[in-house]
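In this supplementary section we document a worked example of the pipeline. Step one takes a protein sequence of length 698 as its only input; no multiple sequence alignment statistics are reported here. Step two produces a three-dimensional model, which step three serialises into structure tokens for compact storage. The input and output of this example are shown verbatim.
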Amino acid sequence: MGLARLLMELLFTVVVCEVLVMFALPVIAPGVRGWQEALLAAALLTLLAGPLVTWRALVLMRREVHGVALDRDQAKLSAQKTAFESAALLRTVDQFSMVCVTAPDGGIIEVNDAFCQACGYSRDELTGQNPRLISSATQDAFFWIGAWQTLLHGQIWSGEVCNKTKNGALYWVRCVISPVLDVDQKPVKYISVAYDITEAHRAQEAMAAGAERYNLVIEGGNDGMWDWPDVRASDEWWSPQFFRLLGYEPNEVPANRLTFNTMLHPADKQACIDAIDRALQACESVDMECRLRNKSAQYMWCRLRAKVYFDDFGAPTRMAGSLQDIHERKVTQIKIKEQSQQVTAIFALSPDGFVSFDLQGCVSYVSPGFAHLTGIPSAAMLGLHEDAFSMRLFERVEPQQQIRCLADVKQVAHEGCGAEVGTRARAVLEMRAPGRRLLELSLNQSEGGSVSQILHLRDVTHESEVDQMKSDFLSMAAHELRTPMASIYGFTELLLTRELKPEKQKELLGRIYRQSEAIVTIINELLDLSRIEARRGKDFELVSCNLVDIAQDVLLDFKLPPARHPPVWDGPIESVMVLVDAQKMRQAILNVVCNAYKYSPQGGDVFLRLVSQLVGDRQQVGLQIQDHGLGLSPDQLARLGERFYRADTSGRIAGTGLGVTMVKEIMVLLGGKMDVASQIGQGTTVTLWLPHVEANVT
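The serialised model returned by step three reads:
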């Protein structure tokens, strides 16, 4: 390349000089022609071209020699750099890789320090040995046959090998074995370079074990897993258990949003869709209960949980979660809730009071009946400890009572456990006014759950009143029945033991008859009142009757006391229709008329009159019976109508204290009422009010 360039430049120089000579020759020798002209031209050309050609040739030769020297220096530097890099590479490989050189028969020729450190053998122990010395036998014979076939064909082999150290520990290496070939392409040695991958291999094994465990959990767990890899698409992934929870075989139905939405109960669909939308928009997690339709077309309760994953810009990309079968638990909870609501409704409707205490002894529930019975707001008692509750409750109790705290209630209950059959220990409190009443307390211990004990309060005021009335009745019976029975017994004894004149016998028999009649009256009144209370008017035959006719029938049959005037009608007598049981109405009027004569022993007329009044939009009529007898005080008037109560305590006026009670019961059952007005020494006025009806009402 340099010689050709030199020739081209020399040729160019000669041509340029020849052109100059052609133009300069006519000027220098204008008259020269022929051979002289040619000789002169050659001489001029030699003078011009010779020096130039020689100079240019020297320049080019010098440059060529310099270029060769420069190329030689560059080649030397490149060789030195390559040798340095190779040495550095060899040092790096020697330091961080395990190098082993073996002969064609497999005998170890050379190993580096890293190889010795890895296997635990020294260089002398390894030299001349076969690499099988460090084999762990993890790879089978077919593995090594394949490796040797690759090497014998002059190709490089690479793979992962498990070796064994001198002390028996296993380690994994990534190994590359390269054959060194001679001119005949036959291997003369093998060079093996390996690096330790034990930790990476263990990590892979751990990952494989974790993946296996994850798959086992998915396959064997009770929860169904699901994944929505792209929230912009509809396709999802459902685990096999997800399908089985709903009664399907894996992949029996498409796993996508459309399928899931069609399975949702109509009442839960919108709530579930809204929860998922909120999770995608507000970075919220999903944890809700919903009903899904299974393969049998039955809805089952499930718990749906999900978490949303977002990209670097905060946009949702993925959602994954689980599905849990909670049907049995949910059904049980619903039943418990219904039962709890029923119990709460029962407690709310019950007139009794109930208070429950939790395991720490604090009030956890107070029924509405408690506030009604004690006058203490339920909210004021919630959360109080048993001692504070007891103190607050017993502030409302009348002082100087045997029961002073809840501990006394427990003691009474404990004593009652050992009482005889038919007896019962009772803890009864008398509450202060207003709302003065008697309450029976019982405290029941609980053996489990969240309730330690329940306090039951029951209003026994009426029972106490009944007990008192029973006592009054027994006292009255002992007084009222004993007197005629004593007369009957005494007169009968006289008739049996003595000889009496016929006149005397007749007199005694008359007394016996009258005393027996008094006993029958008392018994009949008791039976009538008992029958009325038991049937509550079910045996009444209500018909439209003239109240005046009923009253006149009573007066016709009424037996006047000796020396007394018959009742007097005060005012006009006109037809007044009422809807009543005629027999029961006669009994009520008769009782009032009898009392009017009985409680006016000093005489005086008894008046009857008709009155009327407008109550709301209904007309009421009343039969008024007025006497001018003893009269009643305000206290006596307040108790009038109580069973066995008698205003006369002297015993001079016969009676049972049941007549007025019977009248009051009859009037209430007939849809009316009894009003009483009285003053001491001026007499009493009793008005029997009834709704007025048309004549044709039956």
